[in-house]
Design brief:
- This protein has 238 residues and is an all-alpha fold.
- It has one domain.
- It is built from 8 helices and no strands.
- Helix 4 runs antiparallel to helix 5, helix 6 runs antiparallel to helix 8 and helix 7 packs antiparallel against helix 8.
- It is rod-shaped.
Length: 238
């Protein structure tokens, strides 16, 4: 029966490479490992966050469209705390109530007394857009680290590769021999740095593109809701 020869990474030789690597090479590998670990933590955290945001968005928008009065949606908006749409709605609703109170001495939204004008609608829209910017800024937190890892990790791996190759040539010069036993440790260290660098960068690139697309979709949905909200209050104010 023939024996199956597994790659070194499955036979434990990779740990021998790590154990015999230089101090600089060990620093590179440790840094890449830490960056990779942090990236995976961020990926998992953002996946949970965006899923909660999408669920809250969906629930609030459905409730808002079923409601006959804006005041009915206030409680739902406050309960959907992860939803940027609900935060934008609350900002617009609060400004709407404040402007209506200023317009009408008796308070409340009395359209037959003094309806809102275009300047009032612009104020409400600007307030909602500012809230949207703040919400998107919150959702973007930590995502920049994924971009940093995606850009830096391959170059750090390349740096480790260059150092490993330099070490191999140094060994050749010191021992006066170009045998495999002389150059193999440095070459193995160099290739390991490349592998770890790519292993850290590839998931970070994929996750960053995914997160960027998610934020774009959420931003577009919230902008669409702002227009829907303005159309609704304009119809109610006729």
């Amino acid at each position: 029966m023939e024996h199956i020869i597994l790659p070194g990474i499955f036979t434990g030789s990779v740990w021998q490479i790590i154990g015999s690597t230089s101090i600089f090479g060990a620093f590179i590998l440790a840094t890449l490992a830490i960056m990779s670990f942090i990236s995976w933590v961020i990926i998992f955290y953002k996946w949970r966050e965006y899923r909660a945001v999408e669920n809250d968005n969906s629930k609030f928008v459905q409730f808002f469209r079923r409601s006959t009065r804006l005041s009915e949606s206030v409680g739902q908006a406050k309960s959907a705390s992860r939803s940027p749409i609900s935060s934008v709605f609350l900002a617009g609703y609060q400004d709407l109530m404040a402007l209506a109170e200023q317009k009408n001495v008796g308070g409340g939204l009395q359209q037959t007394v003094q309806p809102l004008d275009e300047k009032d609608y612009e104020i409400i829209e600007m307030s909602m857009e500012k809230t949207l910017t703040d919400e998107m800024g919150t959702l973007e937190k930590k995502v920049i680290f994924l971009a940093t890892t995606a850009n830096v990790a391959p170059f750090m791996g390349l740096l480790g590769t260059v150092v490993g190759i330099m070490d191999s040539f140094w060994s050749i010069g010191q021992r006066g021999s170009a045998s495999l036993a002389v150059v193999a440790p440095g070459i193995a260290e160099a290739l390991l740095a490349t592998i770890v660098g790519l292993g850290a960068a590839i998931p970070a690139v994929i996750a960053f593109n995914w997160a960027t697309n998610k934020m774009k979709v959420l931003n577009d949905q919230t902008n669409s809701f702002i227009l829907e909200f303005l159309v609704r209050i304009k119809k109610d104010n006729l």
